[in-house]
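Can you give me the bound-state structure? Components:
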Amino acid sequence: MSRSDRPLVAVTRVIPQAGLDLVREACEVRLWAGDLPPSAAQLADLLRGCEGALTLLTDTIDGAVLDREPQLRVVSNFAVGYDNVDVPAATERGVAVCNTPGVLTAATADATWSLLMAAARRVVEGVDYVRAGKWQTWGPTLLLGQEVTGATLGIVGFGRIGKEVAKRARGFDMTVLVYDTYRDEVAEAELEVTFRPLDDLLREADFVTLHVALTEETHHLMGKREFGLMKPTAVLVNAARGPVVDTDALVAALRDGEIFAAGLDVTDPEPLPADHPLVALPNCTVVPHTASGTVQTRDAMASLASRNLLAVLRGEEPPACVNPEVLGRR
Ligand code: GLV
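Here's the bound-state model for the whole set.
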């Protein structure tokens, strides 16, 4: 370690033990032990004097936070997404920002499929029906869903997770369309998928899954106009970030039958209050941002986030840094 043998680091929530142990071996750890995220003021206290921070996607790290802690050298986010961190502000101040790509790809693709299947086949409605004691007999038209096998899947965001979703679609004999701002023609050919402009994809797909990062460009990528393009039998799955979808437009589309159903891992707002219209809609299946939530994946995320943090503090190259241009600058 460059500045002291045991630098002070903040860990903003209890993460799986393997990660905490790694950090504790080398650092003085100031751990936020609450079940809920620290408030802005609590986060400021937690970060005071720290050289490193292992943060969650629920922590806002902006220029003002960074300015209060000029000794901070690394923000290691326990997530692949890092829209909670102002990366340009960090880069300007020479602070490395790290994330956890790769280790959560399969779990997130699996979860996308579980939401797709649940929404298409009305699994949660079925469970609620049984629990409510409504199951009287086998019904020829009871809780009919949409056929998945042989349907057309539209993948919006053809990065690591989108590609993994495409692989799984093969097992369902689907036609796969993809959209991204960046074309990966090699992967398109390998995975036998077809690129489409977004509007065409939305018109043609029976299932649309979202896997884009949240940026100014992708904020409300799916709004009233886009739902208007989709089939009334279509299912939307959001495994990206809540604000990629305009919530009011989604509520209207689900309520008015503009689309058949939605499966949401992420929402806007997040958390979603229990009395929110999306919760009440029977054709909306919402889970609490748990797409990467397997024991194995969260262990791997904890370990990677910790290795990222320690590498920067040791002056080494971290396994996953989103602004590598700052490395070695201080
Ligand atoms: C979860 O949403 C993540 O970005 O890892």
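A couple of observations. Residues 78 and 305 are 6 Å apart (CA to CA). Residues 295-313 form the longest helix (19 residues).
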